[in-house]
Design the sequence.
């Protein structure tokens, strides 16, 4: 996984409070939110300015800040994507991670020693063992606290069809999953009118070890982590404040920034 802005401005403006659009024709101004940026033969399929996203960024876990090390890291797929946030994410898979591995300030030490990083391939499963995963995240100091870490599992079943399931593995504020197994929302502190928020909910960092409860060593599978922040103002909220304009209800004013890691693969 990697992220990019898809912008043609030569500007690195992936932040919500500094979004300069995808090209010079949609730079900040009072009416850009309602511009038709992509006109379709049928107007109901038009894409409007407010539907553009300010994301994203590509993150590479390289051993050094050199061209060679960065290309090596991309070749081994040790990368993750974000929607513009600069949160730090580590994700490792193996068969021997334990809760004790979360009680450290350097989770990567246990990660590399006991398993493979994001983008890697799990070795053959030892008899009777299921994969375990170490997932850790730290907030972007300039952005929102963290809501949760999820691990997404995909697998090919006996019929050859691809399945997918999302697991919440770490979350903030001591919430308890409901009877349906779903985690309640983290809440929302965004003041849209002032384009600001409070980090009074969520956590600055999360870490967990998770074991696949439904592992079948005969099935090909992949696992990746997704880290989600608490709600923060979207670029449209900053624009409404900056130019003193009112946008209709269908224009979202908040977003939950997130990161997606490259998968860790299991092949029978």
Sequence:
């Amino acid at each position: 996984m990697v992220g990019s802005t898809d912008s043609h401005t030569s500007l690195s403006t992936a932040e919500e409070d500094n979004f300069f659009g995808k090209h010079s024709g949609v730079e900040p101004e009072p009416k850009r939110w309602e511009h038709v940026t992509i006109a379709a033969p049928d107007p109901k399929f038009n894409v409007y300015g407010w539907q553009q996203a300010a994301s994203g960024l590509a993150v590479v876990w390289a051993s050094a800040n050199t061209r060679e090390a960065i290309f090596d890291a991309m070749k081994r797929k040790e990368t993750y994507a974000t929607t513009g946030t600069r949160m730090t994410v580590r994700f490792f898979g193996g068969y021997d991670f334990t809760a004790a591995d979360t009680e450290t300030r350097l989770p990567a030490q246990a990660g590399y020693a006991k398993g493979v990083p994001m983008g890697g391939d799990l070795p053959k499963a030892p008899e009777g063992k299921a994969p375990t995963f170490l997932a850790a995240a730290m907030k972007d100091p300039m952005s929102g606290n963290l809501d949760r870490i999820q691990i997404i599992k995909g697998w090919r079943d006996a019929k050859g069809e691809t399945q997918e399931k999302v697991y919440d593995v770490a979350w903030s504020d001591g919430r308890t999953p409901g009877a349906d197994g779903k985690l309640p929302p983290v809440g929302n502190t965004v003041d849209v009118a002032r384009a600001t928020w409070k980090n009074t909910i969520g956590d600055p960092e999360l870490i967990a070890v998770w074991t696949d409860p439904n592992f079948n060593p005969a099935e090909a599978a992949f696992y990746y982590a997704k880290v989600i922040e608490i709600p923060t103002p979207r670029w449209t909220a900053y624009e409404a404040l900056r130019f003193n304009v009112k946008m209709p209800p269908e224009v979202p004013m908040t977003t939950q920034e997130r990161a997606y890691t490259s998968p860790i693969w299991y092949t029978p």
User: Anything to note?
Assistant: Residues 189 and 200 are 8 Å apart (CA to CA). The chain has a mean pLDDT of 96. The radius of gyration is 20 Å. The chain has three helices and 15 strands.
